[in-house]
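Re: Re: token formats

Sure, here are both.
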Amino acid sequence: MYDNSHKRADAESCPPGSNGRDVSLLNLVVVLRNRFMKAGEIGDLNRAIASHRNVLELCPPGHRDRSSSLHGLALCLSDRYDSQGAVADLEESVTLGRAALELCLPDHPDRAIYLNNLACYVRSRFQKHSQMCDLEEAIELYHAALVLRPSGHRDRFLSFHGVALCLSDRYDSQGAVADLDEAVTFGRAAVEFRPAGHPRRAIFLSSLASYLRKRFHQHAQMYDLEEAIELYRAALELHPTGHRELPSSLHGLARCLSDRYDSKGAVADLEEAVTLIRAALELHLPGHPDRVMSLHDLASYLRTRFQKHVQVCDLVEAIELHRAALELRPSGHPDRSLSLHGLALCLSNRYDSQGAVADLEEVVTFGRAALELHLPGHPHRALSLHSLACYLRRRFQKHARMYDLEEAIELHRAALELRPSGHRHRSSLLRELALCLSSRYDSQGAVADLEEAVTLGHAALELSPSGHPDHSLSLNRLTIDIRKGFQKCTLTHDLENPIGLRRAALELLPTGHPDRSSFLRSLVICLLDRYDSQGVVGDLEEAVTLGRAALALNPLGHPSRASSLHDLAHCLAKHFHHQPIATDLNEAIALEQEALKLLTPGDPSYDVSRQCFMIYLQMKANPQVSITSPSAPAVTNFDVMQAIRGFTLETLKTLPTRLLHTRTGVLCNRDAQISHFMDSEQYSQLLSSCRTCTPDRRTKLIHTAISGYFRFVTFSHRWGVEEPLLRDVEGHSIYGMSTERGLGKLQAFCLRACEQTYLWAWSDTCCIDKDSSAELQEAIGSMFAWYRRSALTIVHLSDIPNTGSFGASEWFRRGWTLQELLAPQTLLFYSQNWSLYKDLTCSNHKTDANVMEELEKATGIESRFLGDFSPGMDDARSRLQWASSRCTTRPEDVAYSLFGIFDLHLPVLYGESAEKALGRLLAEIISQSGDISVLDWVGEASSFHSCFPAHITSYQTLSLPPSLLTDEPSLRTGWWPFSSTALRKLYRSLTKSPLPQFINRRLTLPSVTHGVTAVELKGEYPLAPNYTYKMRASGLRPLEITLPDKLEDAAIKRGALLLVRPWHSKLLRPSAELDATTEKRLLSILGRPFNALLLIQLPHNEYKRIASSTLIVAEPKDSGSVLQSKVSTLNVV
């Protein structure tokens, strides 16, 4: 403090103009900068910069000290850039550094310092802007400084260190291994030059460690990683508590230990990595620029630990840390995609662990967001394509929606193009694409898909030879697909591959491997298939041997023991049939008896084992009884029952989880539903019918019987007080409960369904566990599909008497009932007393012309949509208008109730505002379809985005008055003739416009723009409030608009207002050339009146929409103004 005061006093004692003032100011600068370096007070650095500028004024061009003044000011500005990140400081430091170097002649003793520092500034600029020319210049400058610092020079180590840093950067950008090797060489030289005890030795140790870690990732040589770990440990010993480089070394060591865990699997390394990164995070307090890196790394290590120990608490913490990191990486942050990807991985793991559909939906959302940030050309685009494809395939497995699988296949193909032959991840991509194609084959039966899956499987296997960590995965995938081909084509040669592949896989699985038993059993099945086809006894003998080996791996208590017992019994029975040895048959009977003891009566596997057991007993009495002929049920029944069970499970996946059994009034889960079916007469008849029919006929029979048995009825109604919930009816028959209020309504609904001969019924009151957010999310995402798949929807209008008209019912004003009206194919209305509406006895009121006419009047929806509605985003604006007069009890449900209508799958986040929920919906509509009609609304703007309304009621206004729509602009004067050249230019501009997109709360909006040239306030009604303006805009007729808020005078004066016509390429039919028909259509479209948006320009070339109280109907002046239209792509926030 004394020194600083002394220097300041010296400076003040030398006022401007006095001799020695420059020296006093420089002395003060030195003290201030040193104090900043020690305490980090930015005020000291700012004063140092101000003093340097004063010194520079005292050293005009030609002054002998000007170069040192330029150099000193550049140093201070570089320090301030490092502290605060102002790019202007960095640019000025580069400029000043260049100027100082120009004044420092080649023989100047300080030239090496100037070269070194300028290289440092230019490298910083490369790190900011990623311009390779900056990095190349920095390398040249460091090399030039190195030449001026020969062996033995005291600062030679600084040039070594600088060159190494730049070469490492160039390796990161271009991947040249020679740069990395050279960085290691220079890094070693810098360390050797600074022996133990040097104050900066720890920095050089850490830098060399980072280069070695990079080289380990390149060559996978463990000695590089081991040395990096030792160097980081040595650096940590040199960092006392509180040292500013301590967190960086903790980070580096943690990453190396994590790498070693990935390579060797030592849990101690993983635990130490977690401990170290926690310590680094504690040092990176909120506000620290590196805190986000600590959050991200800790989340990654915890996820790895979860994968090792399956402790859900690790995964939950990892998700929280990734969310915290994501908040610190807002839209536009260069590393935001890393947090999105990490969070998606963790949520995917939690979905696998707990099955919460909300996690899966969020995974897909984050996967899409990461892909949007990785545009074509981005080095991580292939990873994002691959990850999103995997998430979509898993969602397909959950919901069986083909569009998810189709998109996954396209994404995998796109990723495959970015990972050419030789890429280390190409085999996993081939395998994943094969899995998707195999799944599509399972769903649609296209043999071409299976053939391609097999081809890709062979390619993946070639890229993961024996010893490769993915070899067994590739073997397994290929085997499954080849066996599918054998089952489809019954070609013996197709079976050779899976048998050989299974043998190879077994050789790779050591004794004790958890998958060894399943591989043995699958090989047994393949061998039996080939035995049945070719009759080679050796296959049968080997199947018996392998069956015994599989059974030995499944001891008492193992979940697969019953299956292994049954498989071995089946092999022995076949062997007895080939060569009647009593011991084989006796053992088969004993094995099947043991299997029966382990299985539960009523389980399909129990029934199969029991029937096989009976066949074996018959064979004991009569060895000639066949176990393979169609007339005997042993083998065929086993296959049939497995097929029935499989199809039953697949069918139930598309149905609600819980259904009411209409005959008993009991709520049944999936297991209870299956049990009812297995005990039914329909099941017995199906088994009997399938015994003697062909495979194709059998499949059709199974499909028809199961689909018919599980037809269900859905309930649509206006919720009232005391509706029965899951906890109220679970475990009880609703017919034995009170008939008051909601229970009476539920009973009446089930009785009506039963009267219509349906066994199953679903109500949104008691068939969903509303205490489970995951189940609620799944129900909301699936509800439209459930109503669509239902055999009948019963609508109860509790407020309409039998003689009344249903248009007055509250049911038509509720949000959720819109999809309940549109989704069902068959629908019946019941009035207050549960009689059919107006006693209309037809089986479907949607086929009654009078009812449809009433419905059209009550809803404002055309009968063609009421009778045959397709979910999706076509004409999105009309769908929003249908919902605009409806309301929900929970405000955010207004948006959630539309997810099914638009066929969108978004997370349900109860507690968010209705504005945000609606905003997310509209953003997804634009992102997926580019439909700009959703921008046609009037009223209050949303806080979510200026182009979206705050309330869905804003869509009640018709998009454009019909009287203004005309396809004949040429009838007005001034429209002909027109310039074909100008029209072609305009056509090219429109066709080259990008599609509208909504990314990171920014709307990319291609538009025809009209700058506002004059604004006049005509009427002011503050109480309303309403402000009416007369406006003129380039190319448009004068128009009046009414706004809820007064325009700022400043915005008007600076010409910041625009009227725009949003544009989408679908407004024009696709055409390679501008022919006469397209010319006429283009003029017709652009010549009509249109709904304009009023925008105001903001800084950074962004725009914001100004909401209006009425539609802004704009009209072009004439054909000349249309031809002079300006087409722009605007960024609207």
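Second one below.
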Amino acid sequence: MSPHSARDSSASAGTHGEGINPDSLQERLRRLNNANNEQNSTRIVTLGQRISEYESALTPAVPRQPLGFKVIKRAGGDGQPGSVQLTDFPNEILTHILSHLHPDSHASVALVSKRFYTLVTTPHAWRMAFQRFFPGYLALDTAGKSQNGVWDQDDSDRMRSDVRHFTRLTPRASWRSEYLLRTRLLRSLVRGKPGTSSGGIGSSSRSSQSGKKASAVLTYNTKLPSAVTHVHATFKPNGKKQPRVIHGASDVGIASASDPTCGKVEKWGLDDPFGFAQLDDAVPHILPYGIGEGPAAVPNVMDVSQPYGLLGGEGFPGGRVFYRATGEYRGKYLGQEPGLVEAHPDIPKIPELSEGICSVWIAKSSLVPSLTQSLVGILTGSSLGVVTAYALGYDPSGPRYGAGEISARWVLSPGVPIIALKVDDSYSQKRKTLNRVWAVALNALGEVYYLVQPPTAPVSKTKTDDSIRLAWHTGRSTYWHLVEATRRQARPDESGRNAVRGAYSPRSPSTSLGLTKDQMGAEAREIEKFLRYKPAHFRKVCYGWDMRRKLEVDFASDDEHGAGESVFIVDCGLVEGQTSAVKRFQRSMTSKAQLDDQSAGSPESTPEVASAPSIFGGSSIRSTSPNSSSSPLLKQVLTASGKLSPPTINSPVKPGLDDWRETTLHSKELANWQITATGLDASQLALITSFEDPLKDSTGFASSAPATPSGQAPTDIPGRRARFFGIGTNKGKILLWNAREPHTGDGLHPIRIIQTESPEISCLAISALYLVHGGSDGLVQAWDPLASTLDPIRTINSRSLNRMPRHLLTANHTLQSANFSAVGAIYLDPDPTVLHGIVAFGTFVRYWAYSSSNHATGRKRRQRHSDVHGRVTGRRHGSGVQGYIAAEAEELRKEQQHQAREQARLRSRFGVGLGDLTEEEAIRYAEMMSQEAFLVDEQRRASASDTGSAADFDTTSSSGSTVTPDPSVTGPSPLAASSSARNDTTDESDYELQIQAAIRLSLLEGVNDMGASPRASSSGEYDIPITVKERRGKRSSSSSPSSSHTPIVKRPESSADPAAAAGGSSTAIEDDDLEFALQLSLAEEESRKANLAALEGEDAFPSLGGSGLGKGKGRAT
């Protein structure tokens, strides 16, 4: 077979639509492989010709076809065995396809078949849909690794971006419920409808009675004399108690409370004339933050709590602690009571004149005071490294402490200020049993101290006991541990003395150390020695002095081995010579058995474990306490209830070392920025540990599964129990990390970087649903941390001008340099499903309460708004475009009806709209009509003026006779006779014109140029007899003008001439009547003139007379 024939056969086969002919293809391939082919041997072979022939042999020749469309029936159509159905795809492909559908379509797909129902309700489809809606792809741009200054990406980063780390919204969340609820809440936040539930604006009794329209945002003045810096609130009403917000200004130490639903500010805190002195006024010669040669000093500090009140501290030397309870209108100082400290050598003497308050904390709930037997409700840290606890609440089982009474005291780092304190407000009995960290302190050198057990209350306490001595002894019942990775580093010098002085620091001992009274006295003297050192000494012998560090603690982080707490130390980069950095220290426990095995294998570690603790520093080996995990009580609890024990702990935790792993949080340009704000997710589910998580319990999870079966495994928890930690910079950027990401050698990379429009981030608040930032320009915006959109979800507050009120500037001159428009504090509702929050800027606060539902209650949602995010909400009603067109047509029809009703109303009331004219046409028509009417009046006036010289021109000229006025004539006048005889032959319209002219002439003759009626000579000018009634007197004539001034006209009798009577007709009778009416009008006018002439001779002001019907003299006369 020749190549041409093979090509023709293949072409013909392609023409018939059956593709390549297998026989011809094999023949062509054999021809190419046959080396003895004579045709090919005689042909010249070029380079690469055989390869091109192989390629062209596999490609069918397609004949040229004319342009246009051609419908070809598919081989194996519907119903044929070779067709491919949607159900033929495997489950993996179908799940991927269904994950692209809108959530509203899943309900319809579930009704197709059991297989589709199972695929739709599986968590895999919803997980893929969640990852597609919340891409989180910004991690690809920021998760690169730094290698030789070049940032690149690798496959591991891409794989990591496919995992979504977040805090779920509900305790029993599945991928389906999480996806539906999160998308619905974000749409509600974008919509911004006011919430109608409890806690919404206008929901309180006092505001609901006013009848005002509900609003989603309310801004009001807190009446504070300075900018608000701290806010704490309770948005959910408790019984009859309405939502309440407490807001305070730290620089003056004043706070106030208000109801955010109506904006009413209470009197609490405003009636007290108390106020803190400013640092510049109290000690103007001391530089703040310990950078000078004097003692350490900071601006005044504050913490507020809605249940317990206000706590403030004066930051200058000699400062004290001020406390005002919620139910009290007057506060008090929590100072030391005078005691005989000299009589107790084991108690160090604190120089109060050089001590200031650098950090304070007050309980936000009753959990910590109740679990510590009301010993710890307030904590303060001083500039000398002293931590003091004060009591709050009442515990009937323990000793009675008054509110604000000193209960425990420790010296952690003598001479080094305690700059931050954090306490677990979700502390529970289970955490106490497992020796979880519940209190953390940070000093100016970056050292971190923590407590795992609360102090033990004394057995008995009386009023005669010295409270100071009792507080020191109570503090010895527990021990503050030091994170060894944060221990201070000595600054080397030539003599080598700093190596000893810079690395050593004493602190308060514990009774578990077994020290004697003499040893405790020696330690007290050593502490007093360090208390006399100034900050300049520590800056000289140690590295890392910074009093503007920030502290954040994740108490709920759990490694499922009894530990996992994370401490974040933030170096803001505000100190000269230091750069910004964020470090995480995560706790892990090592049991004593493991330590023994390690000591047997490595002899170098034996002395460290077996060495006795020093009386000046102690060691990090935890001591056995009555509440430790090895106590019989804990064994009994763990044995009795398997729910209380962690799932991964099979045996009680034995005392051992706490190992803290240090992890650096990286970012590409973090070293070039200054950190101005920090935030940690404070949602309800972010504050629970793994052994408190309901999804960790498979039994509980199976019993309370969602309404739609999801088949979700207990280990497949949406979000993987992550928690967001974020920082704000002076460049307007926000960096987010997963605070619970496992430790890696190269550090942690941010999962989201947000560039805001603010020049600087002044405040930051994070929730499980959204993130809210406040800028130095007053801009407040909400963002989605999972990057469903790169733009802000909603702008809560726009930029504001930095205008300081004049009365505030007059009262406090130190506010001249303050930024009054910067956002000072943000507080979000701990329940992420409730869109409530409050933000403070200046002395004002703004409270928002958005609706969490799809649409407002009590109102139908219009069809035109059914398209959300480009997807139709209800797919059963057909295409969304058709519905939109129908809605628009209906609106146009209603608008036309409204316009028609309005035009009809105006036409009926004002006469507009004649002949369906427009407004301009109607105005032009009115102008035209007015001009025509004006011209007609001008013509009538001109004709009247021409005939004004002859009064009877129209009537006498037609008759041709002269009329002689004779009052004695009783018959019809010649004028009437001549007029009636002539009108028989004239047109009726001409006669009417003459009558009108006569009336007009009579009126013109009766008015002179001055507008008054001229005097008539006599009544004999008229053809009819007129009888005027004589006046009886001055008073009677003026009392009844209607009777005296009305002339009495006698109608002339009928004519006696029979010829005239026989010749009269109906037309003549009508003419006589008209003529008589004219004469009557003229007679009345003449009578009026005569009366006016008679009155001129009388008094100018005659007395008023009665009508004869009333009382008085007029009736008597």
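Residues 127 and 500 are 57 Å apart (CA to CA). The chain has 34 helices and 38 strands.
- S.
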